[in-house]
Design goal:
368 residues; alpha/beta; Rossmann fold; seven-stranded parallel β-sheet; six-stranded parallel β-sheet; 13 strands; elongated
């Protein structure tokens, strides 16, 4: 079977596509990828050893109508190019993960009668996925809530958000050895995404003395590159304290850090939540309040309602409520154990396989 995957713009679209690619290739399928020529997908996909074909695509700014005309013209041109490409490669099925590049690729799939599968990572459907879902034979979701935006909700199937197998390669022992954290310590991992999160960083600084008063607590704190110097200066850690409060501006071994963690403080982006859920790590989630349609809060709510995590609003982080939830998380082993048990019930670790099953079924239906 020959499968075209498409997604671009952010790693949140690309990582689940690569996770699916891993499973499909294990099953003996041929995988091709369509993305933008200069997006992060161009590098990540090639690094994964997947043939990559670029198509131009861009969004538009509602406040500047000229960008709409330029965006539409570029998508029309790329649609024609994608149709010619489909005439050459004759794929069996297309899977789109979001981003503007998916529009010409998905349209080419429909024009050539190739079954189309859409996967939405967030609880709120992105624009490209919402448009393509009208023509999809299957719309695979991470959250059931996203089905409310579909014209054909009966086509929706909750598979979860795929996580690459490489995320699970690191073990707790390896992660702790890398970080220098003792096996019997409680390790808290704090991060706010690739750019960091100022409110989370400030709240951690404010709680420094109370947290370090717990002698078996180690904190691995990824501040974001722009915040590292400020947080380092504010914490003013002594050499002895730096053994238990490890600061990083950026951490390229997050899989190892997550493997080592007993608890996490994090934003609630699709990729972060998928990895936290797949590893069943107890968490305190702080949704980014300016995400489109506040989708991080909606993402987190389903997970919190299932008993897998705590959640607090970004504007409440520097309050006693944050301290209360954080201390419960790091001090009460029964709280962490309960969250881990509930997280295992979500079966997030099976998401890539479940999505691959739907792709296989769509392709089989297309041959009938």
């Amino acid at each position: 079977m020959r499968v075209v995957l498409s997604g671009g713009g952010t790693a949140g679209h690309i990582n689940p596509a690569l996770a699916l690619a891993d499973v499909l290739r294990e099953r003996g399928d041929e995988v091709l990828y369509a993305g933008t020529p200069t997006g992060v997908e161009a590098r990540l996909v090639r690094e994964a050893g997947i043939p990559f074909t670029p198509f131009e695509a861009q969004g538009f700014n509602r406040n500047h109508p000229t960008t709409l005309f330029k965006g539409v013209a570029k998508i029309e041109k790329s649609t024609r190019a994608a149709v010619r490409w489909y005439d050459q490669i004759h794929p069996d099925v297309t899977v789109c993960f979001g981003g503007y590049v998916c529009i010409p690729v998905g349209r080419a799939s429909v024009k050539r009668g190739v079954p189309l599968v859409v996967h939405e990572q967030n609880s709120v459907m992105g624009m490209a996925n919402k448009y393509l879902s009208k023509h999809a034979s299957r719309v695979c979701l991470t959250y059931q809530h996203a089905a409310s935006a579909l014209e054909h909700p009966e086509r929706a199937i909750v598979t979860g958000n795929p996580v690459r197998a490489s995320v699970f390669k690191a073990t707790r022992e390896e992660g702790r050895r890398m970080l220098g954290v003792p096996d019997d310590a409680v390790m808290l991992l704090v991060f706010g995404g690739s750019l960091g999160a100022r409110h989370i960083n400030q709240a951690m600084v404010d709680l420094k003395d109370k947290l370090l008063a717990k002698p078996d607590l180690y904190i691995v704190h990824v501040t974001g590159p722009k915040e590292l110097d400020t947080v380092t200066e504010q914490l003013a850690l002594t050499p002895e304290q730096r053994k238990r409060w490890l600061l990083f501006g950026y951490q390229n071994q997050m899989g190892a850090c997550e493997a080592a963690a007993d608890a996490i403080v994090s934003r609630a982006g699709a990729t972060s939540l998928a990895e936290i859920s797949a590893r069943a790590i107890p968490a305190l989630l702080v949704p980014f309040p300016y995400a489109t349609e506040d989708h991080q809060t909606t993402n987190a709510r389903a997970y919190v309602d299932a008993g897998c995590a705590y959640m607090i609003a970004d504007d409440k982080v520097e309050t006693p409520e944050f301290e209360k939830l954080l201390r419960q998380l790091v001090e009460d082993e029964s709280v962490r154990r309960g969250m881990t048990e509930r997280a295992h019930e979500q079966k997030t670790r099976d998401a890539a396989r479940l999505l691959a099953d739907q792709v296989d079924a769509a392709a089989a239906e297309g041959k009938r």
